[in-house]
Design a protein that fits this description.
The protein is α/β, with parallel strands linked by helices. It has twelve helices and twelve strands. The strands form two sheets. Strands 2-1-3-4-5-11 form a six-stranded parallel beta sheet, with helices on both faces.
Length: about 325
């Protein structure tokens, strides 16, 4: 395949080659619409700016991680774990934080310009586009904590389906009668698999999810949803929140409303973020084996040479952390 040039990008974006140069250098006048069109064309074509090729040399023996949703403590914990894991393998970490959705093209360009040994993708907002761009450029990429329907995709995930089934079994074994589910973002595999596992196990027992709420994997939205749920009568006596940050929001709402946990309401989360073990929460949850997941992701990247390969999806079992909330 021939090398992609600035002229190719200019033709795709409908601009002049000099405009491409100005966009990548960050100098000279250029409208924001043209800049976005240039970055989008560069991403589609797999163009690497000569201006930033020096970054490739600086990124030798380096693994990149692309992170969004930094308000969810699971992802800062993943960054911390990766930076602890890599030095023993003679590797370094570069972290790219995904800003607002409209800057996605700039992040794709930034990731490709650094030209690391491989990329671990955690962003739910732009995973597919960035994975395709990495593949076009021969840059190995592994999805962490999510999967996609692509037979060439490489991913490492917790077994979300089975973990959610175990939560349903815990509620059933505890005699809970009015069982609710608080979901996250419906366009993510984590939400879909956790909801499906939970629902299927309840239905196997001749039961169902009595109520469903949308917490969007976000503390504020989950807190509002929990206040709505706790105002209902009869009150649900159990709720599975599809991640820990939503479960913690539910525990905070229950405390404010005088709802006793777990006597009146059992609450179980998923992930086992550090806050879950805090004495003020003592959250029962399913722990993702984060260190093992990251270790496997790095193994896959190191073993890959960036050529086209069949998909490689690793699914690891989670562990029920039995604490006080449910």
């Amino acid at each position: 395949m021939s090398k992609v040039t600035a002229k190719d990008v200019a033709e795709r974006a409908g601009v002049s080659p000099s405009a491409v140069s100005r966009a990548f250098r960050g100098t000279g006048p250029i409208t924001e619409d043209k800049r976005r069109a240039i970055f989008a064309a560069a991403s589609d074509l797999g163009y690497i700016s000569p201006v930033d090729r020096v970054l490739s040399a600086q990124a030798t023996d380096t693994i990149a991680m692309v992170v969004s949703e930094m308000q969810n403590p699971f992802y800062p914990a993943a960054v911390d774990e990766l930076t602890r894991l890599l030095p023993a393998r003679g590797l370094k970490a570069i972290v790219h934080v995904v800003p607002a959705a409209e800057d996605a093209d700039a992040i794709i360009r930034q990731v490709l310009d650094y030209r690391t040994e491989g990329v671990i993708l955690t962003s739910s907002t732009m995973t597919s586009g960035l994975a395709r761009a990495c593949r076009k450029n021969g840059l190995p990429a592994v999805l962490l904590n999510r999967v996609q329907s692509d037979n060439r995709m490489m991913a490492v995930c917790c077994d979300n389906y089975s973990g959610a089934q175990r939560i349903a079994e815990r509620f059933l074994d505890g005699g809970r009668q009015r069982i609710a589910f608080m979901g996250g973002r419906r366009d993510t595999s984590t939400h879909l698999e956790r909801m499906r596992g939970f629902r299927d196990r309840l239905e196997d027992a001749g039961r169902g999810m009595e109520l469903q709420f949308d917490g969007a994997f976000d503390y504020r939205k989950a807190f509002a949803a929990a206040r709505e749920m706790l105002a209902l009568r009869p009150l649900p006596d159990a709720v599975f929140c599809a991640n820990d940050i939503m479960a913690i929001a539910t525990l905070d709402a229950a405390r404010i409303d005088g709802i006793r946990v777990p006597d009146d309401l059992a609450v179980i989360g998923f992930d086992d973020i550090p806050m879950a073990a805090w004495e003020s929460y003592r959250l029962t949850t399913v722990r993702q084996p984060l260190r093992r997941m990251l270790g496997l992701a790095v193994d896959i990247l190191v073993a890959s040479d960036g050529t086209e390969t069949e998909g490689d999806i690793r699914i690891l079992a989670g562990k029920m952390m039995e604490r006080d909330s449910g």
